[in-house]
Amino acid sequence: MATSEVVALVKRLEPRFLEGLPPAALASIIAAATRRQFLAHSVIMHEGYPADHLFLMLSGRARGFCMTTRGEKVHVLWFPPGEVFGGATFLSKPLDYLTSTEAVIKSTALMWDRATIRSLAAQYPRLVENALLIAYDYFVAYRALHIAATYQTARQRLAQVLGNLANGMGERVTEGVALDVRNEELANEANITIFTTSRLLSEWQRKGILTKRRGKVVLRSPENLMSSEA
């Protein structure tokens, strides 16, 4: 894929990381990146390893995760096309990645090494501002999750997780919005048991709010789900 084609694709994705940049700057930043493909379930970056690359998803989908001391995988964040990860690469102090990230399906991403992205950030300060805004959004999301875990019911938390996923990585289909997500992943995000997750999904399916298939949920109306469980 030629640089001009990648630029056109990035413009369609409208990534927050590249907001507010003039066309010439956008082309220069993209030209400085390396385009990488990742097979499904391959690990793109590893928790605890030096943060030496920044990634921007072009296609596919990735998922951040951490490992517990007992070797259990805890999922953290989804990265659909247009999202970036590996932001610690920006910082002057060398740090390690806080999480690992794996490709959920076959994916493509732009990749900048540490020296390159720091040089670009010095040349285009808007990149730093955009990165800070993304970090702020992560904090807002963490705060919402913390409040939900403290005050919301299991039903409300699961509805909120489904609504957030529909907005962030949902695929519009004839029946509604499709999510490639397993019960275990939903339970982890909502901080509820798999049994409760299965029970609530079955209840909402009986009511016609969603359709549950193997590894996939189709929300007929995410807005109705959120409002009915608020």
- N- to C-terminal distance: 45 Å
User: What is the approximate shape?
Assistant: globular
- Structural category is alpha+beta
Strand order of the largest sheet: 1-8-3-6
Order of helices and strands: HHEEEEEEEEHHHEEHHEEH
SS element count, helices: 8
Radius of gyration: 19 Å
CATH topology of the largest domain: Jelly Rolls
CATH domain class name of the largest domain: Mainly Beta
Q: Number of DSSP strands?
A: 12
How many independent structural domains? Answer: 2
Mean pLDDT: 88
- Strand content is 15-25%
Fourth CATH level, the homologous superfamily of the largest domain: Jelly Rolls
Helix content, binned percent: 40-55%
Reported CATH architecture of the largest domain: Sandwich
Q: What are the main properties of this structure?
A:
24% strand, Jelly Rolls, four-stranded antiparallel sheet, 12 strands, Arc Repressor Mutant, subunit A, 230 residues, globular, alpha+beta
Summarize the structure.
The chain is built from eight helices and twelve strands.
Q: Would you mind describing this structure in some detail?
A:
The chain has 230 residues and is of the alpha+beta class. The chain has 2 domains: 3-147, Jelly Rolls; 152-228, Orthogonal Bundle (Arc Repressor Mutant, subunit A), CATH 1.10.10. It has helices at residues 3-13, 23-31, 114-123, 126-151, 154-169, 183-190, 194-206, 222-228; strands at 34-38, 43-45, 53-59, 62-67, 73-79, 84-85, 100-103, 107-113, 171-173, 176-179, 210-213, 216-219. A 4-stranded antiparallel sheet has the order 1-8-3-6. Strand 11 and strand 12 form a beta hairpin. Helix 5 (154-169) crosses helix 6 (183-190) and helix 5 (154-169) runs antiparallel to helix 8 (222-228). The chain is globular and about 55 Å long. The relative contact order is 0.12. The model has no long low-confidence stretch (mean pLDDT 88).
